[in-house]
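Private note to self, pasted from the team thread so I don't lose it. Backbone tokens:
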């Protein structure tokens, strides 16, 4: 899967973003010497955010393949619902390493797959907000991301994402922050606030 992800990134994802967006990437120096297990968290502004991460990540790094936590059971957008019915969503998820979660299940059940990935030195990317937040702000973080980090004691790479609204080729901002770990003894609720403050500070530096 590692080489499939690198090939897809090099010949599909990166060219796509080069053609349709003006991708601005900051903080790539924070990826140096990183490897799994690693939890990547970021705010969610656009449905292409997971692919923007792939386009912004150098092929030479050791954080491939990135496994992405995604929603498969329910889609609010009619276009995405149509793609799900045709099986395209399932194919895309398979190719790009997305594992699905179902809303409403117990936290322990929802985290079973990402816990196993991290225990096997994998890389997991998720959006703690749990949805796209269109406003120019960071939404409230859910308990899943801090619970996953606290259970596995995994280091965390924060990223901030933002998309411009002007021009034919809109600007797509991706900024990698510094790796951190959650302090021991935090509750999931406190961990949510801790993570959110880091992403919010990173997001406010995007211009």
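Design output:
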């Amino acid at each position: 899967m590692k080489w499939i992800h690198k090939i897809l990134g090099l010949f599909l994802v990166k060219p796509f973003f080069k053609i349709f967006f003006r991708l601005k990437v900051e903080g790539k120096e924070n990826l140096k010497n990183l490897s799994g297990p690693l939890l990547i968290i970021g705010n969610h502004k656009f449905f292409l955010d997971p692919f923007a991460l792939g386009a912004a990540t150098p092929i030479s790094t050791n954080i491939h393949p990135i496994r992405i936590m995604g929603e498969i059971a329910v889609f609010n957008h009619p276009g995405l619902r149509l793609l799900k019915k045709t099986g395209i969503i399932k194919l895309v998820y398979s190719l790009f390493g997305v594992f699905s979660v179902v809303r409403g299940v117990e936290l322990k059940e929802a985290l079973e797959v990402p816990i196993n990935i991290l225990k096997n030195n994998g890389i997991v990317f998720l959006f703690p907000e749990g949805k796209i937040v269109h406003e120019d702000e960071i939404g409230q973080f859910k308990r899943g991301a801090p619970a996953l980090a606290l259970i596995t004691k995994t280091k965390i790479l924060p990223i901030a994402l933002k998309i411009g609204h002007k021009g034919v080729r809109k600007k797509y901002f991706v900024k990698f922050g510094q790796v951190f770990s959650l302090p021991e003894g935090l509750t999931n609720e406190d961990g949510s606030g801790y993570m959110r403050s880091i992403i919010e500070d990173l997001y406010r530096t995007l211009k």
